[in-house]
Write a structure and sequence with these properties.
The chain is α/β, with parallel strands linked by helices. It has helices spanning 3-19, 33-39, 57-64, 68-74, 79-91, 141-160; strands spanning 23-27, 48-53, 97-103, 118-125, 131-136. It has a five-stranded mixed β-sheet, sandwiched between helices. Helix 1 (3-19) runs parallel beside helix 6. It is globular.
């Protein structure tokens, strides 16, 4: 793992441990990359509870309880869906902090309203409302996915610090 991801994972772990929280993640376009990054960190079993890879809409509904109406009306790559993914990950785990990611990593699959590189994120703490945002990354599939992992972990840190 590269140094940037490693350092970010260590910081996330320290922040979660300090607050006595466990993390769960719900990933679509990153395909479990967040879970891979955090579990590569020694001691992560003290702060990482589980990950959900929900690439298909059916998986988002079955594993996380994302509403079919939300998927139909907003699309899988939407702030509404990632909010529901984060909330569902909290409901269906023993964690108190969640992050969720859904996007268009490319090279195909984009649309005029959601071009390649569009990625939606959500972060939630048990008992609170999920914060969400959409970002647009440039680069190939690998770059979009990597930047998504970085942004998700940085956003989690902000959430834990009360900045989201």
């Amino acid at each position: 793992m590269d140094k940037e991801l490693e350092s970010l994972s260590v910081c996330v772990g320290e922040a979660l441990l300090e607050r006595k929280l466990m993390l769960t993640c719900a990933e679509s376009c990153t395909g479990g990359w967040v879970a891979e990054v955090v579990t590569a960190t020694a001691g992560s079993s003290m702060w990482f509870e589980r990950g959900f890879v929900t690439y298909s809409n059916a998986a988002k509904q079955e594993l996380l309880g994302v509403k079919g109406d939300t998927l139909r009306q907003e699309g899988a790559v939407s702030e509404a869906v990632v909010r529901e993914m984060a909330a569902g990950a909290l409901r269906r785990s023993h964690a108190q902090a969640a992050l969720a990611i859904s996007g268009v990593a490319g090279p195909g699959g984009g649309s005029p309203g959601k071009p390649v590189g569009t990625v939606c994120f959500a972060w939630a703490l048990q008992g609170g409302e999920a914060a969400a945002e959409t970002r647009h990354f440039t680069g190939d599939r690998e770059t979009v996915r990597r930047l998504s992992v970085i942004h998700a972990l940085q956003g989690l840190l902000s959430c834990l610090e009360g900045k989201r």
